[in-house]
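General statements about sequence and structure are easier to judge against a single worked case. For one protein, we set the task of working out the structure tokens from the amino acid sequence alone. The sequence in question and its structure tokens are set out directly beneath this paragraph.
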Amino acid sequence: MKLEITPTAKEKLNEIPEGKIIQLSFDMGSCDIVNNIYEMKVVERREAESDEKIIHSENLEFIVNEDFEDTYEHDLTIDFRNNFFVFKNRNQIFNNRIGLRYV
């Protein structure tokens, strides 16, 4: 998967303490296939479960659902604008108001 982190997003994500990992979990109650991630969770570093995988980008690690890459057509850019993260690719903006929550 091509996962790009913009400099503004990377600056914000680099504030996450050691020993933590970013979890991108789909909201299974959402009807909207591409806007179903509304927050990025910062959790204790752990191994991926059987229905998850770990994606590496820009020295950051993300735990994602196993079908995460297919949902975003194997191309995702994470940006940070107006105090929110923005998920987009070359064709569209998926969600422009994603928060960051420490669990």
About this structure: The longest strand covers residues 93-102. The chain has one domain: 2-102.
